[in-house]
# Entry
Amino acid sequence: MRFGKKAKDLRETVEGKVKETTGKTFGEAGHEWKGRAEQAKDRVKQAVERGKRSLKH
# Structure
C-alpha cells in the first residue's frame, strides 16, 4: 500500500476519534456515535488491507 493511502486511512481514524471526543465533551451524542462509526469503518478497511498484503506474500 502506498504511503499516501496509509496516511489517509490514519487521518480518517484520527478524525473519528476527534469527533467522538468532541461529542463527549459537549454532550452531542450524534457526534460521538458518528466518530465511533468512522473509527470502526477505518479499522475494517485496515484489516482488509492487511489481509490483502498477507495473501500477496
